[in-house]
C-alpha cells in the first residue's frame, strides 16, 4: 500500500483518486481551488488544506493538472513539491503537457534527489472512472518499476516508452493521430452524403476495409452507427474540443521545436480552433463533423 498525495482534483483526478483508494492505497487529495477540495471531501475523500500538508506523510506523489506551466509551478516553485516532499518520495506526473516542461521538471526533480516519471494517460473521464486508463511512462527503468504498481490501480495497460519526456511525447503523437483521423472521417462522411450514400452503409463497409480507423469505429461523428458515440447526444463529451485543441497545439509546438513537417495536423488544429472560437469548446471533438457540414447549432 502506498501513501499517496494526489495533486489536482479535477475531472480526471477525482475518479483516479477513487480507484487508488479502492485498491487499498492511502490517498490524500489537494487542489489549489477550494471548491474542488470541498467536492472531493463531500464525496468522502480525504483532503489537505495546503500542498505541504498533503505531502507531509506521502511516499508517492501523483499530479493531474492542466498544463506545463501548472506542473512546473506545482513542482518547482518555492513551497512546491521539490521543496516539501520527503526524501525518497516517488513523483509521477500524469498530466498532458509539453515535452520541454516534462523534461525540465524531471531534471529539476533528479537534481533535488527524486525519481520522477511522466505518465500521461489515454482514455478520458469514463476510462478514469472505470480504471481502464492506458499509461505511457517516460523515465528510468527504476522509476517505471516503482510507478507501475500504483498506476495499475488506475489502468491495466502500462507502457515504458523511454527516457523522461517520452511519455508525453507519445501521448501528443497519439492525440495528434486521433485529432487528424476525426477530421478525415468527418470529411469522408460529408462527401459520402453528397454522393448519396447513407451513414450506416459507409460505416459497415469502411470498418472492414482499408479506410477503417479508431475515430470511425468507436467515436463515429454522425448519429446512428455507434450508439455510444457523442454524435447521438448532440456532441456532449466525451473528449471536449477545447482539450483536443490543446493537444493539437502541443503537437504543433513539438513539431516546430523538432523540425518535423506536420501539414495535415496543422489544418486539423485550425478546424478545432474554429470549433472553439465558435463557442463549442465544451462539445465533443467529433462535432468537427457538424462544423464541416455547416450543421452546428448555436453555442
Ligand atoms: P480539470 O481542469 O478538470 O482539473 C485540473 C485540476 O487541477 C483543477 O481542479 C485545478 O484547480 C487543479 N490545479 C491546477 N494547478 C494546480 C496546482 N498547482 N496544484 C493543485 N491543483 C492544481 O482538468 P482534467 O480534465 O482533470 O485534466 C487534467 C490533465 O489530464 C490535463 O493535462 C489534461 O490534458 C489531461 N487529460 C484529460 C483528459 C480528459 O478527458 N479530461 C483525458 C486525458 C488526459
TrEMBL record:
GO terms for biological process: branched-chain amino acid catabolic process. SUPFAM superfamilies: 6-phosphogluconate dehydrogenase C-terminal domain-like, NAD(P)-binding Rossmann-fold domains. The keyword Oxidoreductase applies. InterPro entries: 6-PGluconate_DH-like_C_sf (IPR008927), 6PGD_dom2 (IPR013328), 6PGDH_NADP-bd (IPR006115), HIBADH (IPR011548), HIBADH-like_NADP-bd (IPR029154), HIBADH-related (IPR015815), NAD(P)-bd_dom_sf (IPR036291). Residues 3-162 form the 6-phosphogluconate dehydrogenase NADP-binding domain. Its EC number is 1.1.1.31. Keywords: Branched-chain amino acid catabolism, NAD, Oxidoreductase, Plasmid. GO terms for molecular function: 3-hydroxyisobutyrate dehydrogenase activity; NAD binding; NADP binding. Residues 165-291 form the 3-hydroxyisobutyrate dehydrogenase-like NAD-binding domain. Belongs to the HIBADH-related family. PANTHER family: 3-HYDROXYISOBUTYRATE DEHYDROGENASE, MITOCHONDRIAL, 3-HYDROXYISOBUTYRATE DEHYDROGENASE-RELATED. NCBIfam families: HIBADH. This is 3-hydroxyisobutyrate dehydrogenase.
